[in-house]
Amino acid sequence: MKKILCIGAGYVGGPTMAVIAKHCPELEIVCVDINEDRIRAWQSDDLPIYEPGLLDVVQQVRGKNLFFSTDIVGNIPDADLIFVSVNTPTKTFGQGAGRAADLQYWEKTARQILQYSRSDTIVVEKSTLPVRTAEAMHRILDSRSSGPKFEVLSNPEFLAEGTAIADLESPDRVLIGGPTTPAGQKAVEALAAIYRHWVPAEKILTTNVWSSEMSKLAANAFLAQRVSSINSLSALCEATDADITEVSRALGMDRRIGGRFLQAGVGFGGSCFKKDILNLVYLCEHYGLHEVGAYWQMVVEINHYQQRRFVHRMIQSMFNTLAGKRIAIFGFAFKAHTSDTRESPGIEICRELVEEHAQVVIHDPKALENAAKDLHDLPQKQLVFESDPYRAAEGAHAIALLTDWPQFQTLDYRRIFQSMVQPAFLFDGRNLLNHADLFEIGFNVYSIGKRPLSHLD
Ligand code: NAD
Ligand code: UDX
After folding, report:
1. What is the spatial distance between Cα 318 and Cα 315, in angstroms, rounded to a whole number?
2. Bridge partners of 427?
3. Which ligand minimizes its atom distance to the CA of 110?
4. Which among 146, 149, 177, 274 has the fewest CB atoms less than 10 Å away?
5. Which residue has the higher pLDDT, 358 or 144?
6. Closest Cα to residue 266, out of 233, 309, 237, 298?
7. Residue located nearest, by CA, to atom 28 of ligand 2
8. For ligand 2, what atom is nearest to the CA of residue 158?
């Protein structure tokens, strides 16, 4: 194998190819995209996505064995293996709208591969796709009676944003699903050999294609389900004076449950969880498994409920009106260490605050540009995008912390308190800060799943 092509240079394609290039210097890797701005950014040091450690890896390999290009069809003919890493958003139209995966980008790619390939090629699904999509791709690629032969593998990506490089360098597992035919198994082995350059062999799992596709959807559904489970209990904690941090600690110390993904907050965001669960629900309904679909649908419902509940608590505690009040938002990215705001809880929460006629001042260390795009349709006189947290809080009635950026822990909250309108409120949507200290400074502190610390009672 000599040349690898990756179609789709996004959050998955870019970092994944950079890490493969780093560990496999003998391979030539080209990452292509239809988005010219994105490719230009990958060719510069102002990369299109923010990910800790990414620039360093890109700089080590770019121009040596990793190349970024908009020439898709020109790079297909001599590729030995093609990763397909295009976006697969939720369908917004027609049958399955709001739930099924929109496969138009993906199918277009399959047809391009068929049209331009000149030799036998391994095609690897890197995008997260509904179960049995590889079979459909195989049908498209097999639709000619002569010409190159294709093997279609599923190799879903498990990286999380903000830790993409660490996850790629040291994955919990690499999953490769392939046909059980001799040619299929040969293709699986060729892909496994790439990963074995740096991933221990025992962490490379091979399955049939459908198990691999299903495992990806299931992994995201399980992780999201844990977040919704703890968030649902946070509502009960607020009603009963139990403390969700204590509850999740007690739960997590049970080794059968484990401590991760039990952090209560304003709900999960990100481009994957909601989309993949809706996709799973759609599949369940397609197969007539309505109870199973309803079970997973509730994970998404609880996530919306948690966001609505957060705003409701703000309104209630701030004397039942936010109209004309300045609210400083600390954090708009869907999680720390990323500029990504796709499906971020901040979007819904800020929209509701604007609806309540609040003046919303958004601060985020990396995501302000995306925040402005997400809220472009709202009345702009009610929105301010502020790169300095102290200026964002100045004259504010309340701070709502929505992203767990660690730098929010070390701000000078005494100074912030003094610059705010009194009584000053702080709503910690990630249970990130030291609430006793903030209360002592004078804040009325509301967090998730805990009794409020209020000077007003
Ligand atoms: P993305 O939107 O960041 O990137 C996809 C890229 O594909 C875009 O730059 C788009 O311009 C390009 N594209 C679309 N159609 C194309 C075509 N016909 N030819 C060439 N390029 C085309 O998406 P992403 O976050 O990288 O996700 C890609 C896939 O990986 C999705 O299926 C997603 O579910 C899955 N995934 C994402 C993550 C994550 O953390 N973001 C993690 C695991 C899996
Ligand atoms: C997720 C999966 O983790 C990853 O394996 C998959 O490849 C892509 O989708 P990502 O969305 O990047 O990754 O981030 P993740 O760390 O999973 O967090 C998702 C959301 O859940 C974030 O909004 C995060 O803040 C929230 N979360 C996570 C919680 O609210 N509590 C937790 O305990 C953990």
Report:
1. 5
2. 400, 446
3. 1
4. 146
5. 358
6. 309
7. 261
8. 7
